Amino acid sequence: MSALFVASLFFSLFFGLSCGFANAENEHTEKMRILTKDIEVSLVDGNIALLPPEAAKNPAENKEDEKENTPEKSSGNEKMRRYRLFIAVPEKPAPREGFPLVLLLDGNTTFKPAIEKAPDAVIVAIGYPGQEKKEIVKRRFYDLTSYAPADKIPLREGMEAPKTGGEKEFRSLIEKKILPEIFKHLPVNRDNVTFFGHSLGGLFVMKSFLSAGTHGFATYCAADPSIWWNGHEFMEKLAAYNKPEGLKSRLLIETSGIKTHHKSVTETNKKPVKDLHSGPNGKDVSEILRKAKAVDNTFYSFSDKNHGTMLAPAIKDCLQFALNAKNFKPQRSPANSLQPVEKK
Fold this sequence. Notes:
- The chain is α/β, with parallel strands linked by helices.
- The chain has helices spanning about 65-70, 105-115, 135-145, 165-185, 200-210, 230-240, 265-275, 280-290, 310-325, and strands at about 5-10, 25-30, 35, 40-45, 45-50, 75, 80, 85-90, 100-105, 120-125, 190-200, 220-225, 250-255, 295-300, 340-344.
């Protein structure tokens, strides 16, 4: 399998100016070229835009700044927000139409399993700088969700209600800024894009599918999507969905079979957390779409996996589903413990 060209990229926004992958600093290893680019995100009156590269702060000069990974940083009268893109490109000539593009959310955890077998595709995983898990959790709660009141959020012991409601802003960032830069600078086929998300990211992917119409991606992969979010508001959007003429997108929905609670969930708050997570899930969504003949969709359940342990095999499934559909076989470990694929 080909070696990969890998990039770790800091992304920033301010209206009207362009950044560029081409200006990134280079390092070389035996099998990869690693690029880093430090630019920042500025949100002014809700608009998203790009700052010139020289306006960005080098994270290497301020380790504490990256470690804290605060969602918003003040810079004069502007609010700055950083993202990190993890990018891998096969070290081989691209086909005439370009490589398939696989776009993943939660890049800090999804990038490594996505490149494990060096697929013949460009991989772009959107994540956050720094390693502080609590801060990353706070940021993804905002970026991947619609607004939800605290009583609709399954909070763990001692956890404050996170800020929510940034999904439209984040989707605009992806569609209007990140993707155009990818199409401009990387050898990809813009008609062959796969979008993967897990948990809240899976819900984000499902909402993106419903809102895309015929201009959506070729493939959507939602792993254990958080259909429960904000009182199952997604189900209302699903009920109002009408398949657009000429829709060619394909959809893979996968769920976990073992239901577990985070170690911080106590007996006191276990029932409220369970109640908020109950109700329709990814399987129900797949069934509704199948009956409505709304999309070419496949459902699969990892009966021996929980919400966390299903992530890596779900990513591998997504890659095979998108890049080798004719031979798609879900990950099976152990082989006899999983339910057969339900092709919708």
